[in-house]
Prior knowledge:
Blueprint: H1 4-9, H2 11-18, H3 24-60, H4 63-98, E1 118-123, H5 134-141, E2 144-145, H6 147-152, E3 159-160, H7 163-181, E4 185-188, E5 192-194, H8 195-200, E6 213-214, E7 219-221, H9 226-231, E8 237-239, E9 245-254, E10 273-283, H10 288-305, E11 310-314, E12 326-334, E13 339-348, H11 352-357, E14 360-362, E15 368-369, E16 371-379, H12 380-390, E17 398-399, H13 405-408, E18 412-413
Parallel strand pairs: 4-9, 8-14
Antiparallel strand pairs: 1-11, 2-3, 5-7, 6-7, 9-10, 10-16, 11-12, 12-13, 13-16, 14-15, 17-18
This protein binds one RNA strand of 95 nucleotides through helix 3 and helix 4.
Amino acid sequence: MIDLRKLRENKDYQSGIVRKGVDASIIEELLSLEESCRALQLEVEQLRSEQNAASKEIGMAAPEERKEKIELAAQLKIDLQEKEEEYREATEAVDTIAITIPNPADSRCPSGGEENYKVIEVVGGQILPPPMNHSEYGDFMGWVEKEKAAENMGSRFAYLTGEAVLLEFALVQYTLSKLVSYGFTPVVTPVLVREQMMVDAGFFPTDRHQVYELAEDDLFLTGTSEVALAGLHRGDLLDMTQLPVRLGGFSSCFRREAGTYGKDTNGIFRVHQFDKVEMFSFCDPLTSWEELETLRSIEQEILNELELPHRVIMVAAGDLGAPAAMKYDCEVWLPSEGQYRELTSCSNYLDYSARRMKTRVRGEEGNQLVHTLNGTACAVGRTLVFLMEHHQQNDGSFKVPEALQPFLGYDVILPPTKEI
RNA sequence: GGAGAGGUGGCCGAGUCUGGUUGAAGGCGCUUCCCUGCUAAGGAAGUAACGGGGUAAACCCUCGUUCGAGGGUUCGAAUCCCUCCCUCUCCGCCA
């Protein structure tokens, strides 16, 4: 949720929203609704104050005076109820719009859409494609089974088999131990959440169409453990000494991938279900930008140790999700496609999600909302895609990156020997 | 799934039957001060959040809201009624 007070007092705040693609007229409308709402609030509160006072008198009054006083209070109540109804409608009108307004983009974000990103850093080269692309190599190694998956589950599903599974768990182990060394608490999160949790984490109403819903039970399958991680401190008042609260969530992630028909149909680059280790931070509002840099550096450290050439881009304002004020994408070079593709990302939500969740920190001058940030530590399936292209050898074997070797047990995986 | 008990401030815990001066006793914790070689112990005071308005501004004034959530009854609800959520105990089922 945006800060309505800031919205009316701060022009930059407004323009940050416009840069996200919201029509300025909507903001104008919201502001005028909000103003009349406050005027009504004042009236309601004055009436209620009178009514409260009248009621209080009754309690103290002598029995013979009561009848008269009750009649007076009853009339006040009728007036109050009328005004309250007006006020209720006004707040509803404000809320309906306010909940859809995205967090303003930070002024440092480039303007524009998907194409207007700014390259922050490039690490490693743009190497030539290996003999097999990730999809072919997955078949070759017997690591990915998509045909049966298509029959049983539909498109965009896959079975992961053989050493790929061992690689998956090595990746998870490796990532989690790295996060622990940075002070993250590992968390295995539930993947089903209530609607309100989706709203509070900043995903609803904007991204509702991307989420699987279990209508019978009013639950939603999360597309990232971030949702449940955020909920770990919903409604809490934290101590400054606790911050940052760093959580490393592991969970399967479910995404409908609506509107991506025909896109990335090869292999397991884009599937409905994958496992992910996610970083989440509840942070002191004063240091959240530093925290964002920390998340980014951890992501890059992981990419470097997995020996994946990549670049970091700052996502343009118009391409940011609703809750993010700024976002870095780490894009890894995908040799078979000859382009950089997103593998991880991290963003600073500032107080957008915290406001909905009412997660606060006790401060010297009153309590304030915390800032929340999140970043991908390891999106396992997609990481495998890049590993399969970058570490496949000419003889078909797979060279295990050194960082993973302790967690896997060997340094090379040989192709399966053909059965006759 | 069946039967019962319960959700009160940072925490614990009264109040609910018998609705009114209870934003809520008491305790713990915390803050400030006093006392004391130091510490501990002891004494005094203070200590909810959120929202609106006032103000140049405010830790200042004022109003409102909040006793799991949302409705209802009433002049007035922590207290009565309804719905939902959650926790605990017993039974059943179960990886």
